[in-house]
User: Which sequence fits this backbone?
């Protein structure tokens, strides 16, 4: 009897978690209170990843990716980002930040952990506060 109850409990947990995961087709991501377009982040080892192209576009940044060196450089006035595909180091305005996951290429898309979005948002917020004082 205990075995049947245990099996039923496991079955309910598996069915419930599968149906919940299917409902998460997309996640709304915003930067400075503006939604990014068609992000559809993936979740990899419990870390959300998002499109670098969408992030750079929302920031108004021009970027270049060299597939031979795996280096991604994005720039606009007051903001510079240098990443290397497969490396966790991110240089933002010359300062080193270590990402939870390295940026990657998947199906021809450049992807980065959501953490990069958070770092940029916090830097922007700090800069705004500094300018106010």
Assistant:
């Amino acid at each position: 009897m205990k075995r049947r109850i245990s099996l039923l409990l496991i079955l309910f947990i598996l069915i419930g978690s599968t149906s919940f995961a299917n409902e998460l087709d997309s996640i709304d991501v915003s930067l400075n209170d503006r939604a990014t377009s068609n992000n559809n982040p993936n979740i990899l080892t419990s870390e959300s990843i998002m499109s670098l192209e969408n992030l750079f576009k929302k920031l108004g940044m021009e970027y270049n990716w060299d597939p031979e060196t795996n280096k991604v450089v994005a720039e606009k006035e007051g903001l510079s980002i240098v990443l290397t595909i497969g490396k966790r180091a991110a240089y933002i305005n010359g300062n080193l930040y270590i990402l939870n996951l390295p940026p990657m290429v998947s199906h021809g898309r450049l992807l980065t952990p959501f953490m990069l979005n958070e770092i940029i948002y916090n830097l922007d917020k700090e800069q705004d506060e500094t300018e106010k004082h």
